[in-house]
Specification:
Oligomer: single chain
Number of domains: 2
Strand content: 15-25%
CATH topology of the largest domain: D-Maltodextrin-Binding Protein, domain 2
Number of strands: 20
Structural class: alpha+beta
Largest sheet: 11 strands, mixed
Shape: globular
Length: 539
C-alpha cells in the first residue's frame, strides 16, 4: 500500500465517482433487497465530518460525503473524484476545477462555493477532536468562479496537500445545510439530505443507520441496502452473527468472543492494517536520569531507553490480541508503510529497530544489562509508566501485564503502571510531564506526514523535550520531496534518526478484523482503504 503520492488522472470525475457507486450495486432487482446488517461495538460519533477523527466514524462518513480527489489504496495514487482537474499552478497554489452541473442529491447546486465553505468552516470551528489539524498547511482557499477553487499553501512544494484533500478533512459539504461556525446536529444533516458520496442515509433509529446508494430511490431502493447497528454489546454481537441476524461484525472482542465468532459455520474474515500505533513514549526531562531530575545524566537516560528496547518482545505482545494488533518495528503505523519503508516481522527483518534485542524480534537480557552497565546505571531502575484506561481496549490489561513481565526480566527494571485521566493530548502531556507513558494514537491523515509531524516535530509533536533539529529538518524535507523514491529515502533516514534517539519505543501496529457471515462478500480491502464499508455486497 503506497502512501507516497502522485496524482493520476482518469478523465472525468464521473468515472471515479461511478467506480465507487458500483461497489454498492450488487443486488439490483425488483423490490426492496434484504439489507446487509453490519454490527459493531463502536459508535458513530457524529455525522458532521468536522467533529471527529474517530476511525469507525471516518469510514462511515467517507461513504456519505465526496472528496475532490480520492486515494487509490492499492497503488497510493491520487485519483480525480469530484474534481475535473487538480494540480499545482504555482509553488504555493493548488487549483481544482469542477465540472459544471454538479448537484447534491437534494437538488442543491454543488459549486466552488460549497468547496470553499467546507474547508473554511473546519478552520473556523477548530474542533480539536476533528481532522482540522490536517489543514495546518492551508493558508487560504478561494473560489475564482463557480467551478474553480484555489488553495493557497503556507509552504512551497507541499507534496502532501493532495493527500489532505483525499483524507477526512477533504469532505465536501452542502453549505445550505451545515453551520458555518459550529458543529451541525445529526437531525439537521439527515433532514437536509446533502449526501453526495456513494451512500445516502435512508433512515436513523437511535444508533442504527440505514443507507442506500446515492442514486437509489429512498422509497423503493433497488441496489444494496446496508443497516449499520452501532454501540452493540460484543458478546451479543457474536451470538447474533452466529444466529444469522447480523451479516458483518467488527469492533473490540475478547478472546472468548472471537472464538465464538470464528466457530460460526461458513464465517470468513478479512484483516486490514489501520493507522493506530501503540508505543512507549518518553519525556526526556522527567524520565529516569532525565534533564530535570536530581540524577540527570543524558548517557544514562539513553541507556535506559535502549535497554528497554532490548527487552521488548512484540510478537508476544501481539499474540495477546492478534485480531487487533501486529508487531511494529518502526515509527509509522503499518497502514502507512510501503515499498522500502516496510518493516518485516520475520526473524532478522525488523527494519530500523533490528539493532535492539536479539536482532530477530526477540528480547536480549544480556544486551540490555550491558548497556546499563556501560553507562554506570545501578539496577533495578524504577519505571513508572502512565496509561489511560479505555473501555474499548479489551486486551489492554493483558498487554500491560505482559509488557511488565518483559521489562522486569533479568531484574534490570521494576515496573509500576499508573492509570491517569485521559486524553493524553499535547496539552495534557505538556502540563503533566509523565516520565514514561503508554501511548496509543491514530493519525487522521492518509499520508505519513501527519503521523511524523504529530508525533516527532518540535512544534506539533509530543511535548516531552524530544526536540531535535535534525529530526525537524528531515520531517520538513520529506513533505516537500516530490519523487516517491527520494521521499522514501528521506523517511528512512528520519526513522534511523528516531531509532538512534528513541523518543518513543514502538510496540504494536493496529489492525482491524472484519467477520463476514456466509452470503456476504467484501471487495479487496487493499483497494478500498478506509472506504472498505463500500465494498460490501450480498452474493
Amino acid at each position: 500500500m503506497n502512501h507516497l503520492f502522485a496524482l493520476r488522472r482518469r478523465g472525468s470525475a464521473a468515472v471515479a465517482a461511478a467506480s465507487v457507486v458500483l461497489l454498492l450495486s450488487g443486488c439490483a432487482g425488483a423490490g426492496a433487497p434484504r439489507p446487509i446488517v453490519v454490527g459493531t461495538t463502536s459508535d458513530i460519533v457524529s455525522l458532521d465530518p468536522a467533529s471527529t477523527s474517530d476511525a469507525t466514524t471516518t469510514a462511515f462518513l467517507h461513504q456519505l460525503y465526496p472528496r475532490l480527489v480520492e486515494l487509490d489504496a492499492a497503488t497510493g495514487e491520487i485519483d480525480l473524484s469530484l474534481a475535473e482537474s487538480a494540480d499545482f499552478t504555482s509553488d504555493t497554489e493548488y487549483t481544482v476545477t469542477l465540472p459544471t452541473g454538479l448537484e447534491f442529491p437534494n437538488g442543491d447546486d454543488l459549486t466552488a462555493s460549497d468547496v470553499v465553505f467546507s474547508f473554511e468552516r473546519q478552520l473556523a470551528i477548530g474542533e480539536t477532536t476533528g481532522p482540522v489539524a490536517l489543514l495546518r498547511g492551508l493558508q487560504s482557499v478561494a473560489a475564482l468562479d463557480t467551478h474553480t477553487v484555489v488553495f493557497t499553501l503556507r509552504e512551497a512544494d507541499d507534496v502532501t496537500f493532495p493527500a489532505v484533500l483525499a483524507g477526512p478533512a477533504g469532505a465536501i459539504l452542502d453549505e445550505e445545510i451545515f453551520a458555518a461556525d459550529a458543529i451541525t446536529d445529526d437531525e439537521v444533516i439527515v433532514a437536509g439530505g446533502g449526501f453526495a458520496g456513494a451512500w445516502k442515509i435512508a433512515g436513523v433509529d437511535g444508533t442504527t443507520y440505514t443507507v442506500i446508494g446515492s442514486e437509489d430511490d429512498l422509497e423503493d431502493p433497488t441496489g444494496t441496502v446496508i443497516t449499520m447497528e452501532t454501540e452493540l454489546d460484543a458478546a451479543s454481537l457474536a451470538e447474533r452473527i452466529a444466529a444469522a441476524e447480523v451479516d458483518v461484525a467488527f469492533g473490540s472482542f475478547t478472546t472468548e468472543e472471537r472464538s465464538e465468532l470464528l466457530s460460526t459455520s461458513g464465517l470468513t474474515t478479512r484483516v486490514q492494517p489501520t493507522n493506530t500505533l501503540q508505543m512507549l513514549a518518553f519525556d526526556f526531562s522527567t524520565m529516569p536520569f532525565g534533564s530535570s531530575t536530581e540524577e540527570a545524566n543524558s548517557t544514562a537516560a539513553v541507556a535506559v531507553r535502549k535497554a528497554m528496547a532490548d527487552l521488548a518482545d512484540r510478537v508476544s505482545l501481539a499474540e495477546i490480541a492478534p485480531a487487533e494488533w501486529s508487531p511494529d518495528y518502526g515509527f509509522l503505523p503499518a497502514a502507512l508503510r510501503t515499498g522500502s519503508l516496510e518493516a518485516g516481522t520475520a526473524p532478522g527483518e525488523q527494519g530500523v529497530l533490528a539493532g535492539y534485542g536479539d536482532a530477530e524480534g526477540g528480547a536480549d537480557v544480556e544486551r540490555a544489562a550491558a548497556r546499563l552497565a556501560d553507562a554506570d546505571v545501578e539496577t533495578p531502575v524504577p519505571l513508572v509508566i502512565s496509561y489511560v484506561e479505555s473501555a474499548d481496549d479489551v486486551s489492554g490489561e493483558a498487554i500491560r501485564a505482559e509488557l511488565e513481565t518483559q521489562l522486569e526480566e533479568g531484574g534490570l527494571f521494576t515496573v509500576t503502571f499508573d492509570e491517569v485521566e485521559g486524553p493524553l493530548s499535547r496539552a495534557t502531556l505538556g502540563a503533566e510531564r509523565y516520565p514514561i507513558f503508554l501511548y496509543t494514537t491514530t493519525p487522521a491523515g492518509v499520508d505519513v506526514d501527519d503521523a511524523l509531524t504529530r508525533l516527532y516535530s518540535s512544534d506539533l509533536g509530543l511535548p516531552t523535550g524530544i526536540d531535535d533539529e535534525t529530526t525537524d529538518e528531515l520531517i520538513a524535507q520529506q513533505g516537500t520531496t516530490a519523487d516517491v523514491s527520494d521521499r522514501e529515502e528521506v523517511i528512512a533516514t528520519l526513522e534511523e534518526r528516531l531509532a538512534s534517539r528513541l523518543p518513543t519505543l514502538p510496540l504494536l501496529s493496529g489492525r482491524q478484523t472484519i467477520y463476514l457471515a456466509p452470503g456476504v462478500t467484501l471487495a479487496t480491502i487493499a483497494e478500498l482503504g478506509e472506504g472498505w464499508l463500500g465494498g460490501l455486497t450480498r452474493r
